[in-house]
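anyone seen this seq b4? input:
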Amino acid sequence: MLQPRGWDPAFIGASRADWVSRPTPCDWSVQKQGRGLVPAAGQRDAVRAREAAARAMATPSPGPGEVLVCSPEAGCRATAASSSSRRGLLWRFRDKQSRLGLFEIGPGHELHELTCMMQAGLWAATQVAMDHPPTGPPSEEDFLEVLTQVQEGFELDTLAGPAFARLRRSLGLAEEDYQAALGPGVPYLQFLSTSKSKASFFLSHDQRFFLKTQRRQEVQALLAHLPRYMQHLQRHPHSLLARLLGVHSLRVAQGKKKYFIIMQSVFYPAGRISERYDIKGCEVSRWVEPAPEGSSVVLVLKDLNFQGKTIDLGPQRSWLLRQMELDTTFLQELNVLDYSLLMAFQCLHEDERGPGSNLIFRMARSVQGTPSQEELGAQNRRLLPDTPNALHILDGSEQRYFLGLVDLATVYGLRKRLEHLWKTLRYPGRTFSTVSPARYARRLCQWVEAHTE
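predicted toks r here
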């Protein structure tokens, strides 16, 4: 079922009474009527008959070792309940070696049912974007639209769908690839984060896309800032800001909505990454106990773990310092703090060092769409590497560095101001994350300047 409506903060968390019941997306023949999508004439009776017949049929239970594969039409059903709890316990003791510290969310995992619903919902939501791509210049309605889809057992909202469809297109991301990576077929991966938040973190199976659950207030902030965020990316196409690709909410039966965002993973492709860091430019709670030597468990380390190390960027250092200034100034204008600079290291192979034979291609791609030399300088563009996820990758002389600014939704409001006062008393003479946006931006830029060469 689909129900587009204008978005406003009051709608987030709205009751079921705000929804309009319509046929399921898989049975739709859709057509545009203004801002809405409506079922084609003659479809309702047939759809209702099929749904009634489906409810009347008993679905046979799979055997203990079987899995019903996710599909857009049916969602995802896990294996028999008699063994699911046992597998849930065994899951916690699975060898992490095979996934480099990431858990595959297969049958028996406590989040398997939720992620299958996410996959089915995202498949249908992306299909709408493919069938009805935004046309003409961007409008205010692109940022206000809420598209509601109701499938068996759950409901999924797509917030500001046309705006995000435009953003994905500007990044050269094909909707077919986006749908294939996030839709049914292969399970998501669960990332065991060192974050103190209660958020859940997922990766698409190819680790290209990162999904994170968010609080309602954070989603409100992201959507309020979305027009300016997209303008910033237009002015600075090589920005370090993480590329936000979608915002959704999912509600199971009569339960509370779960909000989640989708973004390009900074750490992609991850195959040869050796170290990962989450940097905030402070010291309180910024240490993670490293994994034992020889362990393949993936950990994201923090500021204090980075002591004594530097990033050797050579001539690209000046670009990074300038881009950090541009991006953190923008976040300061949004009154945002507590974001992180994600970093990862990867040793370069011999044939990856130097400009290589594809220099002309790289230059053409790096300046694409820039009409003048003056604009090129104002946008702070750089020579992008010939690699996937090039916007988040800088090559030094010996190492490849993955860099990106993430967690852009924490506003310096009353709660954070009170937290700042409490931490000032609790940690005298020490640096902590909850400071004014101006101080936060300045301090993180100073950290990058001090740790690069």
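The first strand starts at residue 2 and ends at 6. DSSP finds twelve helices and 18 strands in the chain. kinda curious what u guys think
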